[in-house]
Amino acid sequence: TLPEEPFPAFWVHGNDYQPDEDNGGNGENGLQQMLMQNVGRKILLLPAWPAGWNAGFKLNAPFQTTVQGTVRNGKLSDLVVTPRDRLADVIDMSTNRNPSTIIANTSPAKAAIVQPEQPVALERQPVRVACVGDSIVYGANIENRSRNNWPAVLGRWLGDNWSVRNFGLNGATMLMKGDLPYRKQPVYSRVLEYKPDILIISLGGNDSKHPTDDVKDAVNNWQYENDYVGDYKEMIAAFKAINPAMKIYVCIPLPAYPGRWGINDTTIREEIAPMVRQVAKDTGATVIDLYTAMSGKPELFPDTVHPNAAGAQLVATAVYRALTGQEPSGDRTTATADNSDSVESILSPQDAIVPLKQTIKGEANTLAVTGDFGGDGGVELVDSIIDGNLDSKHLNKGNSDGSSPGVNTGFLITPKAGAKIVAAIQFATANDSEERDPVGITVEGSNAEDATKAQGSDFTLIYSGPGGLENVLDRNHWGHTVTFTNATAYKSYRVLITATRGEASGTQYSEVRLGTAVVPAK
Fold first, then answer.
1. Sheet containing strand 36-39, strands side by side
2. pLDDT at res. 107
3. What one-character-per-residue DSSP string does 190-217 give?
4. Neighbour tally for 437: CB within 10 Å
5. d(Cα 243, Cα 196) in Å, to the nearest integer?
6. Distances from the Cα of 379 to the Cαs of 223, 369, 375, 396, 427, in angstroms?
7. Does a cis peptide bond (omega within 30 degrees of 0) precede residue 3?
8. Domains and CATH numbers, the chain
């Protein structure tokens, strides 16, 4: 045994190579799993570590993260998480809480130092799912498209712990020499910025286009068929580069009956389908066979290419099975009048409220100004969200470099009622444009005198996660109540929008309640 080997008892004499996965490597992997495990974006520390064992560790976690720390007498200490924002995803399983008290002025070498005995609110990060594809993903020709496209249906079925985004583009091709290469369009950059945990790719129908006796003037994308596999693998590699832990699903395109615009069912079935399987084999992706799932159902394709709403539900069913291994229980949209009085709100129309833009949790305020709002920039103001009227709304178009319009906007409110404990929030949708709905939020509290001023930054994070509108598509309608743990009465509260339902010109909502959840009478 070489003297520099850790845990020498794990190794046998005469190892053929190192690191060895037969004995010593397995032992070390076992210790690592006892110290740290990962579920989605969550980092679980000490999930199976004996209380009497002491150790120091430095381990790699998904999403290009490094975790370093010490465990002594069953307690976690000296924790360093890089990058710093991943600290919010850490859970100390020995206490079943997030050990994130971040000491100010920490050196860059110590991105986060943790004191386990001082818990803060956990950040709940939904699993991000990006659906990349063509007009079938987009939902072309489907009645009530924004609700009935298959990614929207999938998102409702998966529930609030998932964030499903539709990045479909009409006419898009996988082929870089095709007539509309997906990777050359602005939507591709938006998917990369989204940094999904799960990527679902459904491209190939438009790639199959070529002239035939029936469609002599069709574009000839399939003349570049030899590039299809290579272009597909390049796309996957680009996504893996930004998130090596990303789970990728590749879809065999839907059948055509028999097709239009040069889209060719025979090409899809006999040439593209085997190529998609080859891509999956070469990259480790998982195949979702939408061709088989939708075969023999021409009645669901009114224009012979695009499925109707019923067909989109079948596509969502196939994808749901692939992601969860289960059958969907049906449409989970539950927007009803029962949501109307779910929060005992501390807000009133007389409260001091300030609109924000380009503001991130934990950082200084940037005040929104005339020009950032709806209409000509001077209407649909922030005080509309506390006027008690669902028919009015606030539209904020402010954005910063690298974010979509409406993201990193929000408001800061100082209730006239004084310092109060807030442990629930509820949004109401506006009158139109579902893609503007806020679906990701943060809530912070402050007792600082300058909290409502520009550059005010003394805020404590209370909640980060879904905003309660994920499964609510009805217009001018209250969403679901979001509750969280908070025992501190703050004079001011800051609410920021971290994600919208889709790509939009801003974010909008008609009303907001802050307070405590109403307990239904028994």
1. 36-39, 42-45, 90-92
2. 35
3. HHHHH--SEEEEE--TGGG----SS-TT
4. 27
5. 8
6. 52, 11, 6, 10, 20
7. no
8. 8-92 (no CATH), 127-324 (3.40.50.1110), 337-517 (2.60.120.260)
What lies within 8 Å, CB to CB, of 6 at 6+ separation is 28
User: Which pLDDT does position 103 carry in this prediction?
Assistant: 32
350: tokens are 């007389």
SS3 category, 86: helix
- Provide the residue type at 421 as one letter: I
Alpha-carbon span 454 to 264, nearest angstrom: 58
3-state secondary structure at position 355: strand
* CA dist., res. 372 & res. 356, Å (int): 10
Q: Between the CA of residue 321 and those of 73, 285, 314, 324, what are the distances in Å?
A: 44, 16, 11, 5
Q: Which residues contact 473 (CB under 8 A, 6 or more apart)?
A: 146, 147, 152, 333, 335, 429, 434
Cα 231–Cα 209–Cα 194 angle in degrees, nearest 5: 45
Q: Which of 131, 200, 126 is nearest to 163 (CA)?
A: 126
Contacts of 187 (CB under 8 A, 6+ apart): 167, 169, 503
Mark the ranges of the chain whose per-residue pLDDT is less than 50. 1-3, 101-123, 331-338, 520-522
Q: How crowded is residue 450: how many other Cβ atoms within 10 Å of its Cβ?
A: 13
Bond from prior residue into 83 cis (ω within 30 degrees of 0):
yes
H-helix or E-strand spanning residue 229: helix 228-242
Name the E strands within 212-274.
247-252
Q: For tokens 């088989």, name the residue.
A: 292
Question: Tokens for 503?
Answer: 């790509």
Sign of the Cα torsion 322, 327, 328, 330 reads: positive
